[in-house]
Each structure stands twice: as structure tokens, then as C-alpha cells.
Design brief:
alpha/beta; Carbamate kinase; 8-stranded mixed sheet; two-stranded antiparallel ribbon; 14 strands; binds adenosine-5'-diphosphate; binds N-acetyl-L-glutamyl 5-phosphate
Length: 290
């Protein structure tokens, strides 16, 4: 017990400079369906987010829920296909996507954050027209590409000490249609509009790996481009790094691709010297706190 206390005190004193650096920072966290896992993993994630808020960070959670959408579509016997990592979304599918993401998944995260002593409010891209979309590609149906972001509602929630939890469902330009947005894309668009200090993309690998399988801890946008051109970055990692480059272009200071399966992944990234995962950093903005 005593030893635990000393270890905790040492950890806190080591974390202090980082805590100070992040006071007032905006950190957007993409929490994917595969990273959600069981109730313990969900509580662990919620504890990290609540702690961030308690030390003065403004976190925004943008979630996915692909496996949960697959499960309900399967029960309803609705077939589903992906093209270039995005779900082909017809009228019946978008109805299910909205129900699952803005209903079950969004509220499970809100409940977990409340359970850990935070205050959270769930919303989708429809609320206060947070994310207005255009069709991404006629082949994909109701898949949205964010074209207009109205982030005032997020600023209002920050001021009230409330953690926004955003489901990646958007409204059409006519204010009538519903669009399914890839979770990474939605998180990147929100981070870009907020000019966030950090965008954390939680995934199921330790970070971006080189040809020998080693995680590359620091990358510039041009490193990412060359690793994509030579095929080192492939598959599901492509939409993540593309999101990262776009977000940095829009004024995000740094994007980190980290392993969401690791306990305290977000805190380890923000509040330790070496962080974790792969940091893709803007070359035109100074590091946070300098
Ligand atoms: N260079 C790379 N480094 C790490 N992972 C890579 C790389 N290239 C391709 N990948 C693949 O990208 C996957 C992550 O993308 P994805 O499965 O879509 O993640 P998520 O489900 O978390 O959104 C990894 O599991 C890995 O198989
Ligand atoms: C257009 C598109 O593909 N939308 C995703 C939205 C959910 C998501 O992104 O979930 P994960 O982060 O868990 O993969 C989908 O329908 O699965």
C-alpha cells in the first residue's frame, strides 16, 4: 500500500510538466468499435477521458461502431459491403447506422463517462448542424464527406465543463438526408475545425510500422507520403494517415496513431516523455507549450 502510494506520487510528479503543458488544450479522441471491447475496457477509456478533463484538457470523443452496425445488420438480414474502407450505405442501411451509432453506442460511452464521475453529452453531426455533408461518392450511397463544420456547440460544452461524445452521422446540405461518415473522417474534420492540439486515433496496432515491423514514433507529413507511395503504409492504415495529413493541413498540431487495446493509452500518450504510438507532427506549428 505504502509502496503503491510512493509509486503514484512519483508518477504524478513526473507527469506534472505534461499536465501543465496540456492545460486548456483541445484533444480529439477517435474511439473505434474494435477498441471498445468489454465493459472493463470501456470504463478504462472513460477514466482516461475524465482524468483529462479534470486536469483542464478539453477532450472530444468521436466514436465508431462498425462491428456493432454489422451485428444488427446481420440480425436484420441486410447485406453490407465496403469499398475502400467505407460501408456502401443504402436507405435501409443508413437507418440502422443512425440507430446503432447515435443510440446504443453513443449512450454506452456517455454512460461510461458519467459512471467515472465526468459529465458527458452525446450528440451526432445533426445536432446544431455540427457536421453538414455532401455525398462522398455516388457508388457509396448515403456516405457523407464533411463540408461544413459548426463547432460552436462543442465550445459551449467545453465552457460548461461537459465532455462532448460525437456519433459520426451527418446531415445533408438540404437538412433532410442522413449521412454515414467514417469515424476517422469525422474525427479528423472536427479536429481540423477546432484546430485541435492533438488528434488521437486509437487502433488495434502499436502505431505505424516500418518495413521491419518497428513502430515509427515521430513522422512528418512527407515521411507519411513516402511510406504510402512505397506501400509500407497499406490497408486500413491508409484512411488513418490520410485523415492525419488533412487534419494537420487544417491546423491540427499533432496526430497520434496509438494502440487502443493498451490500458491508459490516452494518458500514456499525453502525460509521459516518450508518449506511445506514432506522432505525425505539423512542421509549421511549434510543439505544444513552446
Ligand atoms: N505500416 C503499417 N503499420 C501499421 N499497421 C498497418 C500498416 N499498414 C497497414 N496496416 C494495417 O492497418 C490496420 C489498422 O487499420 P484498421 O484495421 O482499419 O483499424 P481500426 O479498426 O482500428 O479502424 C492494422 O491492423 C494493420 O493491419
Ligand atoms: C462510411 C463508413 O464506413 N462508416 C462507418 C461508421 C462507423 C465507424 O467508422 O466505425 P469504426 O471506427 O468502428 O470502424 C461504418 O458504417 O462502419
Amino acid at each position: 500500500m505504502n509502496r503503491d502510494w510512493i509509486a503514484t506520487a512519483r508518477t504524478l510528479s513526473e507527469a506534472l510538466p505534461y499536465l501543465q503543458r496540456y492545460t486548456g488544450a483541445v484533444v480529439v479522441v477517435k474511439f473505434g468499435g474494435n477498441a471498445m471491447g468489454d465493459d472493463e475496457a470501456m470504463s478504462q477509456f472513460a477514466r482516461d477521458i475524465v482524468l483529462m478533463r479534470q486536469v483542464g484538457v478539453n477532450p472530444v470523443v468521436v466514436h465508431g461502431g462498425g462491428p456493432m452496425i454489422n451485428e444488427l445488420l446481420g440480425r436484420l438480414n441486410i447485406e453490407s459491403n465496403f469499398v475502400r474502407g467505407k460501408r456502401v450505405t443504402d436507405a435501409a442501411t443508413v437507418e440502422v447506422v443512425e440507430m446503432v451509432l447515435t443510440g446504443r453506442v453513443n449512450k454506452r460511452i456517455v454512460q461510461a463517462i458519467m459512471g467515472e464521475g465526468g459529465r458527458a453529452v452525446g450528440l451526432s453531426g445533426k445536432d446544431d448542424n455540427l457536421i453538414v455533408c455532401e455525398p462522398d461518392d455516388p457508388e457509396l450511397g448515403f456516405v457523407g464527406r464533411p463540408t461544413e463544420l459548426n463547432v460552436q456547440v462543442l465550445q459551449d460544452l467545453f465552457s460548461a465543463g461537459i465532455i462532448p461524445v460525437v456519433a459520426p452521422v451527418g446531415t445533408g446540405p438540404d437538412g433532410v438526408d442522413t449521412y454515414n461518415i467514417n469515424g476517422d473522417t469525422a474525427a479528423g474534420a472536427i479536429a481540423g475545425a477546432l484546430k485541435a492540439d492533438r488528434l488521437l486515433l486509437l487502433t488495434d496496432v502499436e502505431g505505424v510500422k516500418d518495413t521491419s515491423g518497428k513502430v515509427v514514433t515521430e513522422m512528418t507529413p512527407s515521411d507519411v507520403r513516402s511510406m504510402t507511395d512505397d506501400g509500407t503504409i497499406a490497408g486500413g492504415m491508409i484512411p488513418k494517415t490520410e485523415t492525419a495529413l488533412k487534419a494537420i493541413d487544417q491546423g491540427v498540431r499533432g496526430v497520434v496513431i496509438i494502440d487502443g487495446r493498451v490500458a491508459n493509452a490516452c494518458l500514456l500518450e499525453l502525460f509521459t516523455e516518450h508518449g506511445s504510438g506514432s506522432m505525425i507532427r505539423s512542421t509549421s506549428l511549434p510543439p505544444l507549450g513552446e
